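User: Sequence recovery, please. Input:
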């Protein structure tokens, strides 16, 4: 048996905090790719400022003829965002965080395609903006939940930064590109981003918490080991 003095000596040789760095790059990668949907959400927010002079509407992005129509096009996504955010937590808990994020690419893509294909139809543009808003509202709920589940404690804060960063990047992109492109080309580029997200994100792990809650313990362990390979 070790004496008290020898035990104390052994304890003094061991640091309180391990110097071994926890590998977190894959967890950050999963959080970053999930936040690509935040970028697509930013394209819905920015670039749609209503012009001060209704007679200039349609010169570049807007094809509406009245200020009332323009105001509806600019703001209707907020209604969709409100409705999309309310059930997002429960839906992601039911079908899985990853599957829900992949599903949210559908209304975002459909919304932008409607705007691209029907640039002269105000009501279809409104439908497209509303669908994009639904996706936007749900994304702001689903992305933080996914990042929280897949990231270890040591990098959870860094992974959470991606949501705001990518959202602001999407807003910046929309303002810059909308000043250079017409509505049709702008909508086309915005419709591509959700497809790029799906192509990159589908290989990421599902939420370990969701898998564990469904009794898929081996899958949950694999998902945990993806971000914690030690």
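Assistant: Recovered sequence (230 residues):
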């Amino acid at each position: 048996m070790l004496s008290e003095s020898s035990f104390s000596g052994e304890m003094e040789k061991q640091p309180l905090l391990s110097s071994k760095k926890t590998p977190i790059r894959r967890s950050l990668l999963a959080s970053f790719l999930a936040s690509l949907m935040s970028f697509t959400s930013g394209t819905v927010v920015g670039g749609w400022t209503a012009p001060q002079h209704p007679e200039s509407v349609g010169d570049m992005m807007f094809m509406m003829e009245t200020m009332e129509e323009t105001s509806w096009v600019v703001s209707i996504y907020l209604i969709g965002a409100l409705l999309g955010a309310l059930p997002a937590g429960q839906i992601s808990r039911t079908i899985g965080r990853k599957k829900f994020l992949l599903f949210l690419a559908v209304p975002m893509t459909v919304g932008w395609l409607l705007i691209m294909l029907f640039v002269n139809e105000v009501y279809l543009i409104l439908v497209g903006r509303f669908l994009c808003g639904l996706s936007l509202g749900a994304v702001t709920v689903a992305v933080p939940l996914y990042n929280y589940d897949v990231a270890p404690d040591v990098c959870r804060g860094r992974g959470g930064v991606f949501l705001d960063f990518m959202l602001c990047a999407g807003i910046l992109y929309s303002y810059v590109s909308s000043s250079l492109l017409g509505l049709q080309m702008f909508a086309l580029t915005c419709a591509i981003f959700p497809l790029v997200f799906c192509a990159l994100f589908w290989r990421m792990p599902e939420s370990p918490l969701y898998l564990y809650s469904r009794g898929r313990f081996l899958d949950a362990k694999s998902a945990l080991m993806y971000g914690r390979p030690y």
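The two ends are 32 Å apart (CA to CA).
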